[in-house]
């Protein structure tokens, strides 16, 4: 199983720390932040990872090397110009889709920490013959994030991509939805992991830059394609800004989550 890990961002909300250290390499619990999503992927059966890099790319390459120290084979996809969260896929079709017997691949963020059971998520994806399955979580502050809404069968029926916070404004996919259906849906946030079939390569925008959600998965949802939400109810943390980073460092210092790095 192969995965793309997104690590090219500028980490703007974590400046000045990210002016000298790329966000994926910020220290947490005595190791770089990116070690946690890589461990989750390894537990789930991923053996090969490609990491897109741009800002302070040499620090990421130097810190992770070829991945052998983490039980993975890591290669890098340099981006001299940022390609957006989806744009790396245009150049990785052969890498991620090169195994005929393996129809799925994973996309993961480099800045989320979760004890997701990736093997169970893969089984969920295959049981529903999904084109894509997106990991979901219900935080206390859901209004801070885009809302992904599922029906009783966990099919994604609407994506409400956050356009602004104050006042709250969303770009809806689909733009219109029956009021009764909308009222029956359960909202969640995206929590950093996607399982996708190789067929999504044929649905991608032809050239970067483009966004994973607005450019690919939200239009798929708007067209009622088989995109499902896998609800994660376990441990999940993400670092949105300096305040949340400081809070997470304090949490790891006082009571680090057990088993988060288990192989």
What descriptive keywords fit this protein?
263 residues; alpha/beta; 10-stranded mixed β-sheet; two-stranded antiparallel ribbon; 7 helices; 14 strands; 28% strand; globular
Which parts are unreliable, with pLDDT below 50 for 5 consecutive residues or more?
A: none
Number of strands: 14
Query: In oligomeric terms, what are we looking at?
Result: single chain
> How big a fraction of the residues is strand?
25-35%
| Helix and strand composition category | alpha/beta
Assign a percent range to the helix content.
Answer: 10-25%
Q: Name the average pLDDT.
A: 93
Biggest β-sheet: count, sense, barrel?
A: 10 strands, mixed
Radius of gyration: 18 Å
Q: What general form does the structure show?
A: globular
Total helices: the number is 7
Q: What's the order of the H and E elements?
A: EEEHEHEHEEHEEEEHEHEEH
Distance between the termini: 16 Å
Structural topology:
Layout: E1 2-6, E2 27-28, E3 31-32, H1 35-43, E4 48-53, H2 57-64, E5 73-78, H3 93-96, E6 104-109, E7 112-114, H4 118-127, E8 132-137, E9 147-150, E10 156-164, E11 169-173, H5 179-184, E12 186-197, H6 212-222, E13 227-231, E14 236-238, H7 242-254
Parallel strand pairs: 1-4, 1-6, 4-5, 8-13
Antiparallel strand pairs: 2-3, 6-12, 7-14, 8-12, 9-10, 9-12, 10-11
